[in-house]
Amino acid sequence: MNAPRLAAQYLESRPRGVSPARVRAHLRQAFDRLPLEAILLGWDLPPALEETVAAETRRAGARLFRWQPLLTGAPRLDLPPEWRVVGAGGEPIPGHGRLAEFTFLCPNRPAVTEFVAERIETLAARGLFDGVFLDRIRFPSPAPDPTTHLGCFCRACARLAADAGLDLEEARRAVALAAPLDLARGLLGAPVQEPLAALLDFRQHSLTRLMQAAARQAAQAGLEVGLDCFSPALTRMVGQDLAALDAVCDWIKAMTYPRVFAPAGLPFELLGLLDWLIGRGVNPAQAQAALAESARLPLGDDLASLGSEVLRLEIERGKQMGVRSLLAGVALVHLPGVHALSLDQAQADLQASRAADGLVLSWDLWLTPLEYLDTIRAIWC
Fold first, then answer.
1. Going from the N-terminus, what domains does the chain have, and what CATH number goes with each?
2. DSSP class of residue 85?
3. DSSP state of 136
4. pTM of structure
5. What's the pLDDT tens digit per position in 139-161?
């Protein structure tokens, strides 16, 4: 299938007290304003809402994807703690905010592989979706502290690493002994010495292997496959090899969020690394210059709010890395403490994202002011 030109993530969380009729009316308003080709529907919804969205999506002639986190837990799902990613310090890596939905599972554990396959099988059996949009297909970000949050160092990883010629214990010691600036640069894709380079390669191979199996299973069930990936400057840090992942899916959405202060947001991840470097005694100006050089982005003085130019640069980088169908994720919602933008910023982001093959409204259509859809139409249609 062709990648959608315009898509929207919808209903990440279950709206309280919202009826199917209200969801139908809202979605119809969105379709009336914007020729959306795909709806990427959240995973924690009652069947009545899912079926309502499916019917309205098909009425509009669009495709319906299940927006599915793959390598994390969920609030109402108890998973064995031994499945969690183990950091370089020897302890399981806590999820962001200690939330189950941001607590990551090791892709090399056989039980996790089976769990992922069951997730794909279950949603394919519904017969409701045209495709899957797979999210949280990564290792947890090491940005808060690479000496504790870089993983995984569990027994399953040690066995597979040994088969690949990598001594994981030696790599763990290398993480602990690495100069902070060298380690931060390596996480952002700069060359790094062995065995750190082999460790970062191993993490990418591990995720690629899992995604090959998941995408193959989805395709055999007749489902199109889209992937939600970090911004290209950050993919090495979380184990995503965009060229390898592109080979197993139909399209990739890049989470290049210039002003999002939450996981995957450029400011959130880069400020995490910056704070860690400063805490390790690196001069703040030197630390910020090193991050800008390694990320190859115009970071400026305020990392908390980056310019729209980073969108264009990251789209171009994603294509250079080998992504054939690259969709730009653009956040247009207002979430206190997480994301805010002016209309001018929204327009600039949308203009910069024209370098991509398509656009995904992120975080999500339910929370996006409908008048912003008119702005999208003016710029993209």
1. 58-331 (3.20.20)
2. P
3. -
4. 0.97
5. 999 999 999 999 999 999 999 99
